[in-house]
Amino acid sequence: HVRFEESGGGLVQSGGSLRLSCLVSGWDMALFYTMAWYRQAPGTQRELVASIHNSGNIDYGDFVKGRFAISRDNPRNMISLEMNNLQDEDTAVYYCHPVGAPPDISWGQGTQVTVSS
Questions:
Q1: Residues 6+ apart with CB under 8 A from 31
Q2: Rounded CA gap, 81 and 92, in Å?
Q3: Which residues contact 65 (CB under 8 A, 6 or more apart)?
Q4: Distance (Å, rounded) from C-alpha 12 to C-alpha 43?
Q5: Cβ atoms 84, 67 nearer than 8 A
Q6: CA-to-CA distance for 47 and 16, rounded, in angstroms?
Q7: Beta-bridge partners for 5
Q8: Alpha carbon 97 to chain centroid distance?
Q9: pLDDT of residue 117
Q10: Contacts of 111 (CB under 8 A, 6+ apart)
Q11: Residue 63 in contact with residue 55, Cβ under 8 Å?
């Protein structure tokens, strides 16, 4: 079955940068037309951070404001998220997942991003 393994999170000071990676296994990622990064902070609902279609079309959450860049590498079954100028409100667990996936496709463990001021 398909699995998502997120990595690259950590503790960073406000204004700092991190690069998140997600390895998809058990499935050809190219068959997921749109892949995305989501995040969930304690006590909040999971929200979309950025998505990327196989065509190259990209969308970002309004809060990104030019700070993040999503990319995908289908031959390597990986997607990445370059995050710059991180702020306290970016603190959350970040997940990768295909957009519109059926509920039986499990989510990964996520990677924790903590921004300290």
A1: none
A2: 14
A3: none
A4: 21
A5: yes
A6: 22
A7: 23
A8: 8
A9: 86
A10: 6, 7, 8, 9, 20, 93, 94
A11: no
